[in-house]
Amino acid sequence: MLPRHRIYLVAFLFLGSVLPTTQAADQQPLTIQVINQTWKARRERLQAMRIELSVDITRSTLPYMRFAAGGDDEEVPLTEEETLHYLNQTVNFKTHYSLILDSPRIRCRHWGDFPSPQLESMQNLDLTVTTDGKTAALAYTYKGIRNLTIFKSPEPPMSALSNLTLLRWSLLAGDSVCGFTLDQFRVCPQLEQVQGIPCTVLEKNGTHGLQRLWVSPTDRECVVMKYSVERSGQSLSQHDFHYVDIPNEGPEPKYWTTKVYQHKSNQVIFTYGRRINVDSFESRATVTPADFQLELTTGTHVTDTRKRNPQGGELIYDVK
User: Which N-terminal stretch is annotated as signal sequence (predicted)?
Assistant: First the structure.
């Protein structure tokens, strides 16, 4: 039998050889399989969700000034000097979102005052996207008229949710219908720190440029901490995610930020920024089928792409 001090020595040497290996293993990048499993558990924990957002936006005036006034409503293309001028000028405005998420069911209302073309005024726009998993629709009110388009596909029109990329990465990551997946992403060999947290980095190079994603460890539910898209020699967009840790629950979103830079005439110009504040967030919320139903109120102008009129075109009618 070994003397007691020899036992302690053997134990010390054994632990000394094991602990660094264990710690090193904890510091290895996560696999896509582990990330997807963790995301699935997170989505199941959160749904259904009710969310209220307010968005502060700073944007280059160029998208609103694509043409110079030429008189008689003639559109004259901007000169290079005018393009740079408007690219360096900004306009500020604020919008709001109200959402119910119970994938594949979604209800998203977006409203606010938006700059009009040529920045002549601020125009109020109020739109709502709904899908109950069977029928998707887009309703909006413009100049006092309510319009409703009913789509053939039950999936929500993602173009209407394009400004919610950060929400979809933060709360619906891995959801192939309403969120984003890791298709064609690859895991990078080194961890990188984001907000003091060692994150797994994933990359995908494609038609949209180089996309990079920073994912937190499993003890933080693999939430996305940072996302960037770089189009070589053209633009760079960077998105940061900030969370609040809820005891016995997990990370909940606090706010997200976006900064977009464009390369133009040997300059790197800030062209778009926003801060999306999570004003209220309720997980495991109670929802009913009525929350996702279409609202065919009197006077609504309806375009139903699922049906055809006698002439073979889309069925268009006004609700009486």
Answer: 1-24
Neighbours of 59 (CB within 10 A): 19
∠266-271-274 over CA atoms, to 5°?
Answer: 150
20 lies in some domain:
no
Rounded to whole angstroms, the Cα distance separating 205 from 230 reads: 9
Residues 6+ apart with CB under 8 A from 15: none
For the beta carbon of residue 39, count every other beta carbon within 10 angstroms.
22
CA geometry: angle at 23 spanning 214 and 247, to 5°?
A: 60
Note down the domain range covering 210.
35-318
In a domain, 6, yes or no: no
Is residue 314 in a domain?
yes
pLDDT of residue 117: 85
Distances (CA, A) of 74 to 62, 69, 70: 18, 7, 5
The model's pLDDT over 221-242, given as tens digits with 9 standing for 90+, comes to 999 999 999 998 799 999 999 9
Higher per-residue confidence, 66 vs 59: 59
- Is residue 26 a part of any domain in this protein? no
Distance separating alpha carbons of residues 75 and 2, to the nearest angstrom: 93
pLDDT at 312: 80
* 5-54 pLDDT tens trace: 443 333 333 333 333 333 334 589 999 999 999 999 999 999 999 999 99
pLDDT at 155: 81
pTM of the shown model? 0.84
Report the domain count for the chain. 1
- Put residue 278 in one of left, alpha, beta given phi > 0 → left and psi -120 to 50 → alpha: beta
Alpha-carbon separation of residue 77 from 70, 81, 114, 262, 269 (angstroms): 9, 11, 23, 20, 21
